[in-house]
Amino acid sequence: MNIAKFSPVDIEERKKWDFRPGDKIKVWYKIKEGDKTRSQVLDGIVIARKHNFEPGATFTIRKIREGVGVEHIFPIYSPNIEKLEITQKGKARRAKLYYIREKAAKEIKKRMKQIKMEKAEIPAEIPEEQKEVKKE
Question: Name one GO molecular function term (predicted).
Fold first, then answer.
């Protein structure tokens, strides 16, 4: 029996997600309220990732909202997750960042090494002047 046939999500796409503890990510997920379903965005720091890409794999995101720390635990293969975007890479020296629960936001920023993400801008069309190489 192949598990991929019964899964409502694309397992191969989810295995390509390359985020680690310390990264800042945005997760779009569905919330069901009564008869209606709406999409909500959560952005925060990944503080834990458990079981990598096994069937029960999860990741935990922490965000400070109105002075209160909020954590969400998402299963990687949840059909409620619509999209995931890595906004900033971070370099953490531990696999689980539970220690940031007690730290202030200022200390966390100082302690975490943030790696700047480079966005490569590809021009749609190269101007004619740049196509010709001048020989002198």
Answer: structural constituent of ribosome
pLDDT per residue as tens, the chain (136 positions): 555 566 778 888 888 888 999 999 999 999 999 999 999 999 999 999 999 888 889 999 999 888 888 999 999 999 999 999 999 998 888 899 988 888 776 776 676 666 655 554 444 454 555 545 555 5
**Buried b or exposed e, range 81-107, using 16+ CB within 10 angstroms:** beebebeebbebeeeebeebeeeeeee
Among 3.40.50.620, 1.10.10.10, 3.40.50.2000, 2.30.30.790, what is the CATH number of 3-115? Answer: 2.30.30.790
Overall pTM > 0.85 = no
Q: Is the dihedral of CA 49, 86, 55, 33 positive or negative?
A: positive
